[in-house]
Amino acid sequence: MDKNITVDIADIKTSDDPNAVIVTYALGSCIAVMLHDPVRKVGGMIHFMLPTSSTSPEKAEAKPGMFADTGIPLLFEKMYQYGCTKESLIVKVAGGGALYDDNGMFNIGKRNYTILRKMFWKNNVIIKSEDVGGRKSRTAKLHVGTGRVTIKSNGEETEL
Amino acid sequence: MTTAREVMRKADGLPTLSQVVTELSKLIANEKSSAQDFERVIKPDPALTANLLRLANSAYFGLRRQISSTRQAVALLGIERVFEIATSASFTRILPDKIPGYEIDARSYFLHSLAVGAMAEKLAELTHVSAGDMLFTAGLLHDIGKLAIGAFLIADPDAVRNALYQREVRFVDVEKEIVGTTHDEVGALMIEEWHLPQELGWAARWHHAPNGAAPPADQTMVDLVHVADALAHMMGFGADVGELKRTIDDAAVARLKVKVHDLEKAAMATMESIKEMSEILGGQA
Question: What is the ipTM of this complex?
C-alpha cells in the first residue's frame, strides 16, 4: 500500500520509505521542488510560496519552507542527511502558475521560478524536467521508491 | 438561459446561512443592541457558541486575554467582530461535502473563503485604507453564489471543461455562457434574501468586476476583495475548477496603490491563521 505524505504550503518533507508517495496539492503561483536519489531511494519535496525571505526574516526563521532562498537549501541539507549527494539527486520542478493578465505585479509565480533558476545555476544544479507557468493549478506526486513524478492539472494527470 | 433570480428560486433546499446570523444582523443594525442581546441570540446554540469562542481565541481574532463567554467577546472585540466570527462559525454548516459544478470540496472552498477574508483585511492594513467593519465577512461570503449556481453548471460539465481548458476564457464568463448568470450576481441576491448587511452583497456582486461598483457600494471594500480573491487563488487556497482562470483589474490595483511587497506580506502574514481557523472549524472545514 502506498503511504501518502502530504506537503503543506510552506512545508518540506523527506522520506526513505519506498512505499511512500510525497504529495502536494493546489500549487498556484507556489512551486514544488522534488528531489530523488534513485540509488538510496530517498525522496524530498518543498512547496514554497515566495521568492525571498528578505521581506520577513522572522517568518523565514519560523517557517523556512515559505521562501525559495531559505527553503530550497534546507531541502538539500535534509537529503544530505540520508547520505545523498548533490550529484546523486534528480531534480524536478512544478508550479509557478499565473493569472490571465499578468501585468507583472501579480506574477509571483514567475518571480518564484526566476529565483529558483538563479539559485540552481549558482550551485550547478540541473533540472531534469519541469512543468511550470501557465494558468493552472497543479497537484504534484513523488513516488519515493521509483522516483516517478506525476502532475495533475486541468483534470489530467501527466508524467514528469 | 437562467437569470440570477431563477437560480435562487430553483436552488431547492438551499439553507439560509443561519437564523442566528440573520438575528445578529438585525442587532447590528440597531444601535440599542447590547452584549446581552447578542448572548441571548447565540446561547441557545451550544455548538455555535463553542466554535465562536474558539475562533474568538484564535491567533487571528484573539486578544492576549482569554475570552470565555459571548458577552465577554462582545465587550472585548465589539459587536461587528463577533458578528463576523459567528458568521464564520455558521458558514461551514451549510456547506455540502462537495460544491457541485466547481470540482471543489467543502474544505477547500471554506479555506478559500477564510483566506479572502483574512487577506483582504491584511491588504487594507498594509495599504492604509479602511473599508468598513465587515471586510472579513465580505471576503468570507464573496463566493456564496457558487453554492446555488453549481447545480446548473453540472448539467453540462464537458461544456465547462472545454471552455476552460480549450478556449481559455474566464470562469465567470463560462458561467454566463452556460447558465445565463454568474456566481457573483447570484451571491449578491442570496445575501439580500437572507437580510445580511448590504455591504456584504456589494463585495459578492462586484468581486470579479470591481469597476462595476457604484455608490453606495464601498469601492475600497470591493477592490480589496477582488485583489485578495486573486491572491488567495495564487497561493493555492481553494483551487476549484476555475483555478487561476481570472483577470486582475488594473484600476482596482491602482486605486488601492497595492505593491508587490504588500501582496507578498499579506500572503505570508495570513497563511498560518487561515489554516488555524480552518482547523478550528474542523470536520468539514
Answer: 0.92
